[in-house]
Amino acid sequence: MRKIYETAESALDGLLFDGMTIMAGGFGLCGIPENLIAALHTAGTKEMTFISNNCGVDGFGLGILLDAKQIKKMISSYVGENKEFERQYLEGELELEFNPQGTLAERIRAGGAGIPGFYVKTGVGTLIAEGKEHKDFGGETYIMETGLTADLSIVKAWKADTEGNLIFRKTARNFNPMMATAGKTTVVEVEEIVEAGSFDPDHIHTPGIYVQRIIKGEFEKRIEQRTITERGAA
User: Fold this and answer.
1) Which one of 1.10.3720.10, 3.40.1080.10, 3.90.1300.10, 3.40.640.10 gives the CATH number of domain 8-116+149-216?
2) Are 38 and 220 spatial neighbours (Cβ–Cβ below 8 Å)?
3) Distance of alpha carbon 69 from the chain centroid
4) H or E element: which one contains 37?
5) Across the beta sheet with 48-51, what order do the strands follow?
6) Residue range 117-139, pLDDT digits in tens
7) Whole-prediction pTM value?
């Protein structure tokens, strides 16, 4: 099966529809699928639900789609870097399903593993637990969370081979590997594509069986909050 595509637009061709659910990898601005997000903006797909740790920043990452009013709902853990997100949510223009960060990660992992629900202690006794099933294990109360899946996962990796085997680099190995397993279709953008057989099998983080389409991207790799100390400062 052909997996290598020339552009982000061609890699998304035939996959997009209004009202779809998309998982987008990244933590802050690290490891985000910049090129595929830009292609979604160009496509003009609307009413999308995004499962992502956060929603980029104003004017970059998923913030581009937010500015264009293409996102209907966010299933997220952290949204504190985006003023437009705050405005839309407070004005009732954007739906939000908040999750503790570890719970969000496990919901995605569970979805990819075919696990429909699991119990977790995080959130017991808080607003997170309202309306959820409670159960005791070993004298402790837990709440049930459901696994998450998506119509499409868009993922950023460091390297891929032509069969779709992936290697992630350092902090960019965040939500991306889990999301690659939890989408009906997974499209990946990478910095380098090599021939199949080039990777040591022990170094592969995500097997190619989870990956349907790949592009080689160009990356800005913007720093979310750039903080520096002047040379010679105490």
Assistant:
1) 3.40.1080.10
2) no
3) 19
4) helix 34-43
5) 95-98, 71-76, 48-51, 21-24, 150-156, 183-190, 213-216
6) 999 999 999 999 999 999 999 99
7) 0.92
